[in-house]
Amino acid sequence: MKKIINAPDQIVEEMLSGIVRSYPKIVTRVEDTRVVARVKSSEQVGLVSGGGSGHEPAHAGFVGDGMLHAAVLGDVFTSPTPDQVLEGIKAANANQGVLLIVKNYTGDILNFDMAKELAEMDDIEVETVVVDDDIAVENSTYTAGKRGVAGTVLVHKILGAASRAKRSLQELKTLGEEVVAQTKTIGIALEAATVPEVGHKGFELAEDEIEYGVGIHGEPGYRKEKIKPSKELAEELVTKLLEAYEETPKEIALLVNGMGGTPLMEQFVFMNDVLDLCATHAIHVRFTKVGNLMTSIEMQGLSLTMLDVTTHPEWVDALEEQVTTIAW
Amino acid sequence: MKKIINAPDQIVEEMLSGIVRSYPKIVTRVEDTRVVARVKSSEQVGLVSGGGSGHEPAHAGFVGDGMLHAAVLGDVFTSPTPDQVLEGIKAANANQGVLLIVKNYTGDILNFDMAKELAEMDDIEVETVVVDDDIAVENSTYTAGKRGVAGTVLVHKILGAASRAKRSLQELKTLGEEVVAQTKTIGIALEAATVPEVGHKGFELAEDEIEYGVGIHGEPGYRKEKIKPSKELAEELVTKLLEAYEETPKEIALLVNGMGGTPLMEQFVFMNDVLDLCATHAIHVRFTKVGNLMTSIEMQGLSLTMLDVTTHPEWVDALEEQVTTIAW
């Protein structure tokens, strides 16, 4: 294992320290916790997300004006504990209630739920939106039901705009669930990542082989085969995404998300092919974003997220709003 | 070679298309050229940069209000031709003159110079700032003198602010040269990148080996040895950078730049160590940025850039100004 680290069990601590020291005008650490919070608070419903580390810039990179109020960092690929999530809730609380945005993994669901109960004992009103945008497989390692992956970032962005617009906790919960229902993601992997505490790659692929449907923790997908040209990969992913909607969306937002080790060059080539396919299907692409937003350490691969905005043009406005974060 | 592409000789064309189609509100392509230009023009000195592709998001990702006016894309790791640079100059020209920001590689210097001459025949006033921030080696593959690497992005940012503030062409050239003189960079590589047209890795490192001083095209550095903890890597790079200044800077800006395949997790761990060392040396860090800004396709590694701002607090303001680009 060749990584720029000091010791595997110190990575999250040192990374967190590096994040808040690098961007002190945007984020701060809640002392003695694994919570990254906004520097400036305001009278809004607090948005808290988080999960295992290893998905950087998610989630700390999306804390700031117009997006999250706090992110809670677990160990690498491990849910944060309930007491840490509780600290995140307290940091985000401005007496307007707090909404938890949780990716659908068994550990996260359990721990965020427990933190919700603890916060309610402290008289903080808390609601939860569960993101399960990955359409690749129905159940998987760590998950009952579909996994939460890169589409989570679009949920952060749209809810962040709504929170800034002073919408209520119940309105935000409803909005979040509406957005999640229209958000679908599917990914491919070319090379696995190495979890530092494990020390070897999470799975093996042959020199010319890729895997469709791999999750952001290297969970198995649905097929391995020889790599194909980008156009054909795009065709497979776009087709699968469109099949996941009851009817073909007329207007969409698109996110091509790099998994950490795949260069932007390939991400843009792929997006170009996706846009060609959307044109073929007469789908109007209203918003596009390309980059490493929800990674899997240094995994090579990418995911494609589609959000149906046909009946919600205001979601496009929300996606386009300026924010002050490290990484949006 | 496992890459998400269609054909090696189509990558730049398709990537460029992907970039402008993904961000049509920020950038546009000058028709039938390899030039990415701002959507909105204004009465400013035009800033043009560019070079070989493979360094994404540089340089097209830094086109937009407050930074570059146009970026010219060559083939992968290959200088753009003079006629393409000329198109970039024309796109950036708003009758206030055009400044070329060129990384110090023999091909780039030649071709940007030739384009300057062609533009002057068209009565466009053109000046050049050459960036040679890499202190690792004095001469290298492709270069006479020091190489231009990640520090170039800081030059873009500070000159972008000055152009927006309506400074003159001569003032910008002088400013650019002052910034370059205070900008020092050094990098390390853990794994080489594969140039698509070549099909195999540009150099080889053993499983536990890294190379100090590697350039952004995989040019040789100054030493190979076993990987060390991040703290020790930081110590080596910080020491070399400080030695490159006549006296230890009192106040600096810092950029940790990922080479494409190294996750943010490691970049933040490393920055944390760098900040510790700066504290030890009683150096005040006024500005910090971490991320993949000037990559070498999917090379694993990073570089550290230091900019002495001791006598120029206004450079910090320039670095902090909001801009509208894809990737700053």
Characterization of this structure:
The structure is a homodimer of 328-residue chains. Chain A has helices at 11-22, 82-92, 106-121, 151-164, 169-181, 230-243, 264-280, 313-320, and strands spanning 27-29, 35-38, 46-53, 70-76, 98-103, 126-131, 183-191, 209-212, 223-226, 251-258, 284-291, 300-308. In chain A, 32% of the residues lie in helices and 23% in strands. Chain A has 328 residues and is of the alpha/beta class. In chain A, helix 2 (82-92) crosses helix 3 and helix 4 runs antiparallel to helix 5. The longest helix of chain A is centred in the last third of the chain and has 17 residues, at 264-280. In chain A, the strands form two sheets. Chain A has a six-stranded mixed sheet with strand order 1-2-4-3-5-6, with helices on both faces. Chain A has a six-stranded mixed sheet with strand order 9-8-7-12-10-11, with helices on both faces. The model of chain A has no long low-confidence stretch (mean pLDDT 97). Chain A folds into two domains: 9-181, Rossmann fold; 183-320, Hypothetical Protein Tm841, Chain: A,domain 3 (2-Layer Sandwich). At the A-B interface, helix 1, strand 7, helix 6, helix 7 and strand 11 of A face helix 1, strand 7, helix 6, helix 7 and strand 11 of B. Chains A, B: Keywords: Kinase, Transferase. Chains A, B: Residues 7-328 form the DhaK domain. Chains A, B: It comes from Enterococcus sulfureus ATCC 49903. Chains A, B: InterPro entries: DhaK_1, DhaK_dom, Dihydroxyacetone_Kinase.
Write a compact overview of the structure shown.
Two copies of one chain form a homodimer. Chain A is α/β, with parallel strands linked by helices.
